[in-house]
Specification:
about 300 residues, mainly alpha, MetI-like fold, elongated, Dipeptide transport system permease protein, cell membrane
Length: about 300
């Protein structure tokens, strides 16, 4: 008598995730745009037609886009006030924006999850002290607090990323704490505690893996917020410093030409808008994929 192996009809975790993620058409569009931006960031040295920091000068300064009157086909989106190719600077700017988002989201998530995990698990006075500090940080407008921190640390891209990380951290702390408090008294945690699991094992191997869904969604939102905040600091002269081809810094360098040469501020602004919007749309799709209530609907 032959033995028939029965295979489960349940789809794999990845297939199930993609099914719910792809139901959100906006999230799929956001993913496509993000992959395109990521491609530009990785291969900027190949895709960019010119050196982003080379100033051609002379009659090449503030050239309009190639399709406009007076444009030059060698400079598709025109040149800035120093005669540098605008398209090349925008392409290289994707590297800085994605790097800022990745570093800030990682630092914010790492510190925020650790602090929130301790607050939600230990509770008591430790929890009270941590949450009051987070409340104080959240009570101050984020951009104002980032400006104060950068003023203390000094202007520059590295200090701007540190400041933005501190500003975004409380969101991870509060979310992690709430998730841990919801999980810590469930039966599987109690069973692990009775079986002799240490507090560190309960926190990091038992509870934390079951809290990752909303934290991943928050990380995508922190990613887009970091890009926006870094652009704002760059525009105010406290972020990346010239001649770095960072989108916010490019806006700051071109603001005096807003009326005479509007394309100099239009294209960097569109890059910030489209990139942040794409990441936020991806965050909506991740929320749909990780939220069990939406899965049952």
């Amino acid at each position: 008598m032959s033995t028939v192996s029965l295979k489960s009809d349940r789809p794999s975790a990845l297939a199930e995730f993609w099914y719910y993620f792809s139901r959100n058409k906006g999230a799929v569009i956001g993913l496509v745009i993000f992959v395109f931006v990521l491609f530009l960031a990785i291969f900027a040295g190949v895709v960019a037609p010119h050196d982003p920091n080379y100033a051609y000068g002379g009659t090449m300064q503030r050239l309009p886009p190639a399709w406009a009157q007076g444009g030059n086909s060698d400079f598709l989106l025109g040149t800035d006030a120093n005669g540098r190719d605008l398209l090349s600077r925008l392409i290289y700017g994707t590297r800085f924006s994605l790097f800022i988002g990745l570093v800030v989201a990682s630092l914010s998530a790492l510190a925020g999850v650790l602090i929130g995990l301790v607050a939600g698990y230990v509770r008591g006075r430790t929890d009270t002290i941590i949450m009051r500090i987070m409340d104080i940080i959240l009570a101050i407008p984020s951009l104002l607090l980032a400006l104060v921190l950068v003023a203390i640390l000094g202007p520059g891209l590295t200090n701007a990323m540190i400041a933005i990380s501190i500003v975004n951290q409380p969101h991870f702390v509060r979310l992690t704490r709430a998730s841990v408090m919801a999980e810590r008294d469930k039966e599987y945690v109690i069973a692990s505690r009775v079986s002799g699991a240490t507090s560190l094992r309960l926190m990091f191997k038992t509870i934390l893996p079951n809290c990752l869904g909303p934290l991943i969604v928050q990380a995508t939102l922190a990613f887009s917020a970091a890009i926006l905040d870094a652009a704002a600091l760059g525009f105010l002269g406290q972020g990346a410093q010239p001649p770095t081809p960072e989108w916010g810094t490019m806006l700051a360098d071109s603001r005096e030409f807003f009326q005479s040469n509007p394309w100099l501020v239009t294209f960097p602004g569109l890059c910030i808008l489209i990139t942040v919007l794409a990441i936020n749309l991806m965050g909506d799709g991740l929320r749909d994929a990780f939220d069990p209530k939406l899965k049952r609907s």
